[in-house]
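Researcher: Structure prediction, please.
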Amino acid sequence: MLCTSPSLLILDTYPQLFFHLQQQRLIELIRDGKVEEALEFAQEELAPMGEENQSFLEELERTVALLAFEDVSNCPVGELLDMSQRLKTASEVNAAILTSQSHEKDPKLPCLLKMLIWAQGQLDEKAVYPAKLEDPVA
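Model: Predicted structure follows.
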């Protein structure tokens, strides 16, 4: 019997997730100044994916554009090096894992907190609370 890793199944099921993980790897190579390694990785790993999917190709072109600028802080695609890009990729991974385990994409706690805040707002609008009790002085 052949066993397949759950992570491989997730990546097979979500090709966009696999591309974004590979794209993040490319971004990290660029961040580390490993230009030759980044170009080789883009050519060998990401270019074939871009040939199959136009949106992947456009994202790859944006990412490789980072190499054209010495000062990426003024680069039109410099946001790819921001922490928010890492968080976006991590959120995509988490959502795929939760979906693959038949869970909701979003954790329940934030939803419950939103409902609690909403309910408290409804009470504040409609209810009159008794006077605040003072702590007794010892």
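Model: The CA atoms of residues 12 and 18 lie 8 Å apart.
Researcher: Thanks, that helps.
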